[in-house]
Each structure stands twice: as structure tokens, then as C-alpha cells.
């Protein structure tokens, strides 16, 4: 090796007695055995390959990166969270990495177990199907702090940010009932998800509190996407053409329902009032604009980032729980009038 050429990963690999692939993994901060990291770092420093700042990062196993694992990177709820998480962490010198799990529990567990390799300094995650015993075990074994956005089992030793979607459903049904709606249909997402299960139970509870009977013909279960909302709305309207309101489990479902109602010649809100959930940016640009329950996506993201940053900067402490209260934003899809 000449001085002009400088050290390469080949010479580092030869000096450390490891493969070139192992050197590449270490220098790129990818999960690698501790012994391999030490040998590569020692060889790289001896050969003058690694800048001092990078060497220090490798020695300390600090990446200056935080990950956010969510079910669907395209869902506006998670985008609202990202817009709040990133500036909080960026101001403290951290980069934000995004990971879409597709609501796959196995993928979520892989992300958690990967924390043992310290590929990031901390993790914010939002498991759509809830926190299982395997999640709890993986969190306990993690070598980096974790914050969970969503419901967790009572007593789980993890920082947690949650909302109360049951109260949100009740706000929506109270609003529709006050407008004189009595045949209130419900378009929900999968029942094996935390929001789907909670909102199904809340719908029944709200009907009971209002003195309205539960009618299975007024309920359709699909998924949390626009096309599924459209399919669910067509199926429900086919069974119950006298429906006079639709409670939708999120805004994407509501947008699909609005498309179907428009094509069917049903006026909104004259014939059918529609309420969404999450109060995403889509609600204010829908036609008509969409009345929606806010579950504080932005607030939840900001709170999660602050909890994680506190852990990173101040170390261990008792787990904290932050609860964000829902609210209802009334727009033209239920009243015919846009807010001022």
C-alpha cells in the first residue's frame, strides 16, 4: 500500500483479519458482532482510514440516528407524526429513519430485536395490531430506548403515547344524533387491529348510550384504505339504502365513501351525513369538506419525540404515559357549512 493511495477496506480487512464485507458493514454502521467492530475499528484507526469523529461514533456505538417504525408510510396519520417528530430530533442532532412494517408483527419484532445491535440510538414505533408479550420481551432486551405510540398492556415498562378513540367515536355519534340522524352506519377497518377493535366496541357503546338499536346491516368491515372504504360503502348501501349517516373509522375510508355516494346520486349531507376519523389534511380538501374526529396525530408524534429525547439525554427513569384527548372538527359533510 502506497501513502498516496491511502488505506482501503481491503487493507483494513487484511489488518483486522476479517472479510471485506465485515469491514463494509462496520464502516456503514450496520449490525455487526461487537468483536468484529473492535477489530475493524482498531485496524482502521491504525491505518488512518477513519476520521476521528466517525471513530468516536463507532467506539461509543452512537449513531446519531433514531428510527420511526409505522404500519404504512403513505398513511397521512403517520406523515403528520413525522412532521412533528423530525424537527424535535433534528434540533438535538439526530437524523430520523423511517421504516414501514406493513402492520406485520414479525417485522415489528425484527426491528425491536435489531436494537441489540444499536443500529440506531432509539426507536419510536406504532404497532397497528398492538403490543404482544413478544413485543414486551423485545423491548425489555433492547439496548436502546423505545417509545410506543398506541395502546400497551397495563404495566408495560415503556414510554407510551396514546389517545382515546372510543371517546372520539362517541363525539362523532353524538354529533350525528344531534343532527337528527338515526340510521347511522359504520365503516370500519380490520377487527384484529387495535383501532379496528376499539372503534367497533365504541360504536356499539355509543348507540346504546343514545338509545339506538345495533343493526348488523349497518356495519361493514374492510381495511383502512380509500378503495376499501368505497367497497364497504357500496356493500352497506346495497343492504341498507335508508342509511342517513356514515361513521368511518378513518379519513381514507370516508373519502372512499364520499366517492360512492357521489356516484350514487346521494347528496352529502342532505341524504347521508359522513364523519371521518383522524382529521388529516385530506379532511379539509375533500368535497364536501369532511367532518372528522382528531386523535391528535401531530401531538402524539411531538410527545413521542420529546419522551425519546429525554431518555437519550437524561438516561433511565420511570416510564411515562402521555394521553392525547380527541376532538371533533365539524365541516360541510355533516352540516353543509364549512367552518369559518
TrEMBL record:
PROSITE patterns: HTH_LACI_2. Residues 7-60 form the HTH lacI-type domain. Keywords: DNA-binding, Transcription, Transcription regulation. SMART domains: HTH_LACI. It comes from the Bacteria. SUPFAM superfamilies: lambda repressor-like DNA-binding domains (SSF47413), Periplasmic binding protein-like I (SSF53822). InterPro entries: HTH_LacI, LacI/GalR-like_sensor, Lambda_DNA-bd_dom_sf, Peripla_BP_I. This is LacI family transcriptional regulator. It comes from Microbispora corallina.
Amino acid at each position: 500500500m502506497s501513502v498516496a493511495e491511502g488505506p482501503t477496506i481491503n487493507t483494513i480487512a487484511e489488518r483486522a483479519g476479517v472479510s471485506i464485507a465485515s469491514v463494509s458493514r462496520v464502516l456503514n454502521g450496520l449490525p455487526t458482532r461487537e468483536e468484529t467492530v473492535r477489530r475493524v475499528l482498531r485496524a482502521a484507526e491504525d491505518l488512518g482510514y477513519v476520521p476521528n469523529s466517525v471513530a468516536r461514533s463507532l467506539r461509543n456505538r452512537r449513531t446519531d440516528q433514531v428510527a420511526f417504525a409505522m404500519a404504512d408510510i403513505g398513511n397521512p396519520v403517520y406523515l403528520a407524526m413525522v412532521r412533528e417528530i423530525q424537527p424535535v430530533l433534528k434540533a438535538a442532532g439526530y437524523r430520523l429513519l423511517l421504516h414501514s412494517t406493513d402492520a406485520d408483527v414479525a417485522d415489528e419484532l425484527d426491528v425491536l430485536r435489531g436494537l441489540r445491535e444499536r443500529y440506531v440510538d432509539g426507536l419510536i414505533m406504532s404497532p397497528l395490531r398492538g403490543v404482544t408479550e413478544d413485543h414486551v420481551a423485545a423491548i425489555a432486551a433492547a439496548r436502546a430506548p423505545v417509545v410506543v405510540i398506541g395502546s400497551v398492556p397495563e404495566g408495560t415498562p415503556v414510554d407510551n403515547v396514546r389517545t382515546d378513540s372510543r371517546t372520539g367515536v362517541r363525539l362523532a355519534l353524538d354529533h350525528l344524533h344531534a343532527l337528527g340522524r338515526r340510521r347511522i352506519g359504520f365503516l370500519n377497518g380490520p377487527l384484529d387491529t387495535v383501532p379496528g377493535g376499539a372503534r367497533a366496541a365504541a360504536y356499539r357503546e355509543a348507540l346504546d348510550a343514545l338509545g339506538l338499536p345495533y343493526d348488523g346491516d349497518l356495519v361493514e368491515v374492510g381495511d383502512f384504505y380509500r378503495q376499501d372504504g368505497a367497497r364497504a360503502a357500496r356493500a352497506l348501501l346495497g343492504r341498507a339504502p335508508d342509511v342517513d349517516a356514515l361513521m368511518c373509522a378513518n379519513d381514507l375510508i370516508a373519502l372512499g365513501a364520499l366517492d360512492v355516494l357521489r356516484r350514487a346520486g346521494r347528496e352529502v349531507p342532505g341524504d347521508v351525513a359522513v364523519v371521518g376519523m383522524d382529521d388529516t389534511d385530506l379532511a379539509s380538501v375533500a368535497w364536501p369538506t369532511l367532518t372528522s374526529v382528531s386523535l391528535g396525530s401531530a401531538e402524539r408524534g411531538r410527545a413521542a419525540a420529546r419522551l425519546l429525547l429525554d431518555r437519550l439525554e437524561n438516561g433511565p427513569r420511570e416510564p411515562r404515559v402521555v394521553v392525547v384527548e380527541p376532538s371533533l372538527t365539524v365541516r360541510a359533510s355533516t352540516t353543509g357549512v364549512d367552518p369559518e
